[in-house]
Amino acid sequence: MKPIRVGFAGCHVLSWFCLRTVAELCRGSGDTLAGVFNLPPEVGQKHSAYVEFDALEREYGFPHHRVRDLAEPPTLQVLRELNLDVLFIIGWHKIVPQEVIDSARFCLGMHTSLLPADRGSSPVNWALIRGDRRGGITFFHLTTGVDSGDVLAQRGFRIHRRDTCREVHQRATTAAIRMLRAEWPLIRAGVPPRLPQNEALATYNPRRRAADGLINWQAPAEEIDRWVRALTSPYPGAFTHFRGRKLFIWEAKPAKGATAQAPGTIVRVGETIHVATGRGLLELKRLQFEGEPESPAHLFAAVHSPEPGSRLA
């Protein structure tokens, strides 16, 4: 079989693992990884879970381009000159236009949901916020629509009760690697599967901003716990305010017991910090004032002396 020419664009932790897999597959089958694209660090660091490809560049020796936008005329010219059979765009920061898609015979991407459900922004975060117990990842043909292209392959997995966004992303990444390996022969042969999505089943998620992480203490403890697990590192984090300062909650869990205290009131301070919610108590385990190091609750308490009866808002 004739060797193929492959391109790759991405800037996310998922991108790093998929790029390494693609580089290994190219090496094993004698194909050419002709060009790799990532954001410049000064731009990429503004995005959650950004990762650089420098170590992979040293290991695999591919041409490495740092670009702000794949659709910029100089970058688009490079893509066209690469004469790609397949361009993977996995973990990029925006929808790409038709000119980029047309630069390769096939343009393929990944989305961390079982499409057509959860198209759009932050599917893993929204799944955890809702309390979903099943997640997945879809390998699909890119179009100019929002995650609407034909499906190449899908894999689902269980979301465990105490999973965080990091753990769900890790399961999705494992599934992505397995799909790349399984579908590589068909991709090389120029016949990657195409199954149209059922538009009647499509759902969409709104875009999330860092400011959307504010905790509503009127909500039940179970709901706030899901909120914290959905937004924890590598994302901007769930937060509240204490003594006029922004306070991030990186780890928490519902606690046994009840209280008549108003939601947001600190009830107990010890190894952890217990806070009243709209229903039940929430146990805070890892916290961080903005501008300070993250710390376990007992260290935070030693430094800042939060008192029972004081309020988070």
UniProtKB/TrEMBL annotation:
GO terms for molecular function: methionyl-tRNA formyltransferase activity. Keywords: Protein biosynthesis, Transferase. InterPro entries: Formyl_trans_C, Formyl_transf_N, Formyl_transf_N_sf, Formyl_transferase-like_C_sf, Met-tRNA-FMT_C. The keyword Protein biosynthesis applies. Residues 210-302 form the Formyl transferase C-terminal domain. Pfam families: Formyl_trans_C (PF02911), Formyl_trans_N (PF00551). Belongs to the Fmt family. This is Bifunctional polymyxin resistance protein ArnA.
